[in-house]
Amino acid sequence: MGLGIIGWIIIGGLAGWVASKIMNTDAQQGIILNIVVGIIGGLLGGWLLGLFGMDMAGAGVIASFLTALLGAVILLFIVKAVTKRA
User: pLDDT per residue over 2-39, tens digit each?
Assistant: First the structure.
């Protein structure tokens, strides 16, 4: 059973918010950006874990959240690294 679009938005928002707390960017982001970061992070995290042979499809809500969190932290790290040099 899939989460549906609302489930992905909720998981993405939570993952983006937690990642922004970890990376200390929460003051710069609003709820919409947290959701976007979390959803893109989920795609990035899933892709990266796929490179290591891990298939996260259908692994459950907790695994989806952790995958999105991993990807969101990596995404925010990259964004911080690029914007500090520019």
Answer: 667 788 888 888 999 999 999 988 777 788 888 899 98
Cβ proximity of 72 and 43 under 8 Å: no
pTM of the complete model: 0.84
Longest dimension (CA), the chain: 44
C-alpha dihedral sign at 42, 44, 47, 53: negative
Helical residues (DSSP H) of 1-86, grouped into ranges? 4-22, 31-51, 61-85
Where are the domains positioned within the chain? 4-85
Residues contacting residue 22 through CB under 8 Å, at least 6 positions apart: 73
